[in-house]
Write a structure and sequence with these properties.
By secondary structure, the chain is an alpha+beta fold. About 30% of the residues lie in helices and about 30% in strands. It starts with 6 loop residues before the first strand and ends in a 12-residue tail after the last strand.
């Protein structure tokens, strides 16, 4: 991929995480919601944040994953990324810091990333996965136009036994309007 791409929205700047973000990433990843609903290590150590920032840079260089720090006027608000980019598809993932939730940041940041995925990246399909019960993440995906494709029984590895996971998909040709989900 090469040089990291900066995305801007009305209120946010999305840019590659850098070394100066390590302390904020470490602090935010102490949140039990982030640890239970994402793939971050649990417990989360400062070294995990350091490794993540180094990996994010490597992923950008090779184009396998594109991860952006979500930044508002106050600083780091969360992360959003396109993971496992291959054969015209990727997985959309995101988390928000507790203090950034409830402001519409997830919708704003993910919309910018989806636009980039289907625009300049020319991807054909995005997938979204979440632990069954992560309704906040589900609302974001549903409002982006993702269609719920089912439940993957024991489909997600976490910080203990495997858990059931929702899976949804969005094609470049799909309408980007909220979809009805039975959840």
């Amino acid at each position: 991929m090469g040089e990291p791409v900066v995305l801007r929205t009305t209120r946010l700047t999305l840019s590659r995480p850098v070394d100066s973000d390590v302390d904020a990433i470490f602090d935010e990843c102490q949140d039990p919601v982030i640890q239970s609903f994402t793939t971050v290590p649990s417990p989360y150590a400062r070294e995990d944040a350091e490794k993540f920032v180094a990996l994010a840079s490597h992923w950008w260089d090779e184009g396998s994953e594109l991860v952006w720090a979500i930044r508002d006027a106050a600083g780091l608000a969360g992360m959003v990324g396109l993971h496992r980019i291959k054969d015209g598809a990727a997985e959309l993932g995101y988390w928000l810091a507790p203090g950034a939730r409830g402001r519409g940041y997830a919708a704003e940041a993910t919309t910018a990333v989806v636009d980039f995925a289907f625009g300049p990246l020319r991807l054909e399909r995005l997938e979204w996965h979440a632990v069954v019960g992560n309704t906040a993440s589900a609302r974001v995906a549903q409002n982006l136009g993702f269609q719920l494709e089912g439940i993957r029984r024991r489909g997600l590895a976490g910080h203990g036994p495997r858990v059931d996971g929702w899976i949804a998909g969005l094609l470049a040709t799909d309408p980007r309007t909220p979809q009805p989900w039975p959840v």
